[in-house]
Amino acid sequence: MKYLIYAAVISIALSCSKKEENQSSATDKPINENVASLNKEQIQDAGIKTALPEKKQISEILKLNGKIDVPPQNIVSISVPLGGYLKTTRLLPGTPVRKGEILAVMEDQQYIQLQQDYLTGKAKVAFLESDYLRQKELNKSKSSSDKIFQQAEADYLSQQVMMKSLYEKLRLAGINPDKLSKDNISRSVNIYSPINGYVSKVNVNIGKYVSPTEVLFELINPTDIHLALKVFEKDLDKIKKGQHLLAYTNNAPHKKYECEIILISKDLSMERTAEIHSHFERYEPGLLPGMFMNADIELDRRTVLVLPDDAIVTYEEKQFVFIPKGENKFEMKEVKTGTNENGFTEIITKENLDKQACVVKGAYSLLMSLKNKSED
């Protein structure tokens, strides 16, 4: 009898427990994890505001990178056509130079010999000219033979050719033949800068003998530097000659440099990229050859649906907006975003949001509310 009483009590207890579970499950409602519910005070504290999406004209921005380059005509290699020993120079890489400034002084005995040959030949050509004119007059009166006259003429013309050759050699060596005399023969010559710019390379030291084929210095004129950028094959049809772009460095992204595209390469590299060259609208000394830069190219403008940047939140690498759903409730909707410009982001979505109000301020607070709810 005792066992029957215990069994009846256990059976009643289990029945009551099961009934309570059923009642509890019946009263529980499914929770939408994408809906944030706030009271009026919370909405006010979060500063939540709603507005309709707008239609604005924005342009697609193509982002490129590259580095500053110097065209070949702005790079000058300085050499000594006749060779010689480097006597003096003050140049170091980075030294600024002006056109006509002395870069170095070279010396060699061949310079002395060249000046000697020119002055000796100059004196001889005067004698041969007089002899030629005398033989010419004598030949007219047949006082001298044609052979003597022809020999005098040949000697005179040959000496003129030699003098012209020596004249050009002196100019090539940096010596002015017109100012050369027996009193100012020098064993050294000056090397002058042909451009304004700065020294990029110094390949010699004082006392070193330099052959005519060796490069002493390399100079760069930076006033016509170019920005060389790489463009992927898929974006080439978006680039046109004459387009403007804004370039900037990683260290100072806020400082923009205006450029214009002047050349587009016609071949592709192994990485399927082409090179475009753009010219800086204004040269600045801080722009140096070899410096890496980024560039933004503004493509064709178009009218699209946009929301302020503050209306879009990112969660788990996806973008969302919040839409009011009833009183004090906001539903989180996933959207696709496009171009961003001047604080507005393009909205790309299958759902029509033209007339749908969205949270434009306080969206991040709503996201935090949802995350905290999911963790509880």
From TrEMBL:
Q: Which UniProt keywords apply?
A: Transport
Looking at the record's lineage, which domain of life comes first? Answer: Bacteria
Q: Which GO terms describe its biological process?
A: copper ion export; plasma membrane copper ion transport
Q: Where is the CzcB-like barrel-sandwich hybrid domain?
A: 75-219
Which GO MF terms are attached to this record? transmembrane transporter activity
Record flagged with keyword Transport: yes
State the SUPFAM superfamilies in the record. HlyD-like secretion proteins
In the UniProt record, does the keyword Transport occur?
Answer: yes
Annotated Gene Ontology cellular components are:
cell envelope; membrane
Query: According to its UniProt record, which protein family does this protein belong to?
Result: Belongs to the membrane fusion protein (MFP) (TC 8.A.1) family.
Protein name listed in UniProt: Efflux RND transporter periplasmic adaptor subunit
Species: Dyadobacter frigoris
Task: Print the organism lineage.
Answer: Bacteria, Pseudomonadati, Bacteroidota, Cytophagia, Cytophagales
